[in-house]
Specification:
Shape: globular
Distance between the termini: 86 Å
Helix content: 40-55%
Oligomer: single chain
Strand content: 5-15%
Order of helices and strands: HEHEHHHHEEHEHEHHEHHHHHHH
Structural class: alpha/beta
Largest sheet: 5 strands, parallel
Length: 381
Amino acid sequence: MKNIRRFVKFTLLLLTVTFLSTVWYHYTMPSTKIESKQAIIQTPQRTDVVILFTQKRSGSSVLGEIFNQRTDVAYFYEPLLPFSERNCEELLQDRLQVLQKVVNCRFDLEEHYIRGFNASKCSDKYAQCLKKKVCFTGGDKYSRFLSRDAGLCNLGNNKQQCPEPINLPALAKYCKQSMLRAMKVIYLCKLEWLVPLLSSHTVNLKIVHLVRDPRATINSRTRSNPSKNRVSLVRHVANGICPRMIENIIFAENVLKTGELKDKYMRIRHEDFAINPIEVTQAVYDFIGINMNPRIEAWLKDATSADNNRNLSITSKQSTKRNSVAVVSEWRKSLTYEGVQEIQNICSEALDMLGYRQFDSEKEMKDIKSNPHFTYDTDNV
């Protein structure tokens, strides 16, 4: 009898445990699964964005083309064109809001642009920011995706024709579907102003910081100026750009290249890209997580080599198709040694930080073949 009682008790206990386990599974586990699905749905998808950050006449038109040439990339040539470079902090919140909106494919930019043009006194004749509602749509090198991929404009004879205004809802739709949102930014002077975007949980922002020998940049900015006292002009421009270069390099070294942000920042020297465009482009693509393809490689070879039969010589100052090897040393032929001394006095720290050689005599400066002003740095890419 005792054995029978024990068996009955054991059977009842087993049935009870089985019943409770079944109830727990059906009522608890589904709830867990639903919560898990909800968590996935509620987690926002991160948007891939790259900002090419630089100063005027630093070679950004050519480097930016490595994004503009790619299909499925929404590339905005210069969304901050209405704002002035001279007074960087003027309308800073408007500048940052424009970047934030473009990152999120919002194009209600008109009020910001009107304030920018009113303050900077810049012309909208070429960029067409107000008529089109986005800046730079007319030329072949400006935001090619508008005609090539999005079908919002027509391209013929290297001239992009867009309606006034562009269909903004359609633009927003394509922008959101693009593989990558890219823009080059000249009129935002400090890297530190991009930190809020870098720290966003919904935006995967990468910064490509393009720098160039300030002597070359200053030569490019001043050579077409009719001023008779070019040395004074060179001094003025150097005082405007070199302290900013130094500040941004120091911030990058101390903040962006350390801690959680170190994988979001990359610095490129224009000279390294000019000498080795394919290698540097591959490094940039690896940095932002996209693949090189034969078409891009072929375009790079064409865009950075001289072809006089096709009128692609270095005489075109802002062309994206130039003999890059010759261009990197062109300033040494154009600037006087007196002007170079002025720049080196003001920009000495920036030159040293970026690995550019300074010259002690006019003979050294003019001897381009024997005295290169920089060495190719594979650690820079």
